[in-house]
Structure formats: structure tokens, C-alpha cells
Design brief:
Rossmann fold; single chain; alpha/beta; binds 2'-deoxycytidine-5'-monophosphate; 204 residues; five-stranded parallel β-sheet
């Protein structure tokens, strides 16, 4: 199956990664968490490299650092992601990944709108900021006992506002995306819905 692409967009901690991984595993598709590209750029910025240079020289091994999941890196990633030259440096890699034989799932903020506007399946997965902050808090507090729910909620809201209001490729659903709200739908139901949508398109 050449170039079957599933595009998953939405704000932080809405369940994109969980749904993306499950869909990829079910169909044997490759999965790319595009947030990791921006996080790797953000991590380099925190180490003193300019965001543009970091994006232009990004290597596969930069995506493997275990520092990429911290709130400081998420914040730096969101800032770097507003810079047009950073976004354009990362486009080719994402598009080649999307077109690989055997199918691909990409999750991020602009996959259905900018990176893969022709994706066969587009999902926009969201949840209230409170639900998303509670999920992120449960993950982060396991490794960092100093995090607070209020702090995580404030970070989530600041990042949503920046990612949605930037001029270049802002976070928004593609017109033809299927919307899923995981504050009212559990993750198993979201995965089942996503798998059904892929099956429907593959059968066409
Ligand atoms: O999905 P995440 O939380 O790992 O993403 C980190 C930041 O990267 C996010 O705040 C916005 C940015 N990002 C983006 O602008 N476009 C993408 N396709 C993926 C992430």
C-alpha cells in the first residue's frame, strides 16, 4: 500500500500519541510523533544553539534523548515552532515519512492542514484543558515530584494559546478532519473509531 497516510492533530495531551501508536500497530504502519522534532529543536535551543540552525542540522539521534519530555523542552519547542524557518526545515522529512510504502501515521499540530493535506484519513483529537492537564500531571509527577497540577494546567494553556495563535501553520482542524473529544470519549473508543475510519478508506 503506497502512501496511505493517517494525519492526527490536536493540542498537547489530548491522546494523539496513544491513538496514533495503536492505529500504526493495528495496520503495521510506521508512526512519527512530529512533536519530537520540535522538542529536539527546543532542547538544542536550551543548550545555546539558534532554533533555525538546530532545525537545519537535526539528526535522527537527536530524537532519542530522554530529556525531550520535560516541560522546559515543551515550552522551548512551542516557541521554536512559531518560527517559519524552523517549520520549513522540517517539512521534507515529515512528507517523505508520510509517503513511505506500507503506510504511515503522523501526529502533530499541522499534519492535516499543511504537511499532508491529501492524507486519506484526518483526525483532530481534543479534550478540555483540565482533562489534558490531569493526564500530563499523572505522567510528569512520576518522574518529577515537584510538579503541581496548577502549574501543568498553566503550561498547557500557555502552549495551546501560542500554538493556536501563531501566524504559520497554527493548530486548527482541517476542514475534512473527523473531530474526537477524548474528555467525553474514552481512549479505547477513540482508537476503535480511528481504526474504523482507516478501514472504511482502505476499502474504497
Ligand atoms: O506534541 P508535543 O507536545 O510533543 O509538541 C511540542 C510542541 O511542538 C508543541 O507545543 C507545538 C510544536 N509542534 C508543532 O508546532 N507542530 C507539530 N506538527 C508538532 C508539534
Amino acid at each position: 500500500m503506497l502512501g496511505f497516510t493517517v494525519a492526527i492533530d490536536g493540542p498537547a495531551a489530548a491522546g494523539k500519541g496513544t491513538v496514533g501508536r495503536a492505529v500504526a500497530a493495528h495496520f503495521g504502519f510506521a508512526h512519527l510523533d512530529t512533536g519530537l522534532l520540535y522538542r529536539a529543536v527546543g532542547a538544542k535551543v536550551l543548550n545555546g544553539v539558534t532554533a533555525e540552525e538546530a532545525a537545519e542540522t537535526l539528526k535522527a539521534r537527536d530524537l532519542e534523548s530522554d530529556q525531550l519530555r520535560t516541560s522546559a523542552v515543551a515550552e522551548a519547542a512551542s516557541r521554536a515552532a512559531a518560527i517559519p524557518a524552523v517549520r520549513s526545515a522540517l517539512v521534507d522529512f515529515q512528507r517523505s515519512f508520510a509517503m513511505r510504502a506500507g503506510g504511515a501515521v503522523l501526529d502533530g499540530r499541522d499534519i492535516g492542514t499543511v504537511i499532508c493535506p491529501d492524507a486519506q484519513v484526518k483526525l483532530f483529537i481534543t479534550a478540555t484543558p483540565e482533562v489534558r492537564a490531569a493526564r500530563r500531571f499523572a505522567e510528569l509527577s512520576r518522574v518529577d515530584p515537584t510538579v503541581t497540577l496548577e502549574g501543568v494546567l498553566a503550561d498547557v494553556q500557555a502552549r495551546d494559546a501560542r500554538d493556536s495563535s501563531r501566524a504559520e501553520a497554527p493548530l486548527r482542524p482541517a476542514e475534512d478532519a473527523e473531530l474526537m473529544d477524548t474528555s467525553t470519549m474514552d481512549i479505547e473508543a477513540a482508537v476503535a473509531r480511528a481504526i474504523a475510519l482507516v478501514n472504511a478508506r482502505r476499502g474504497e
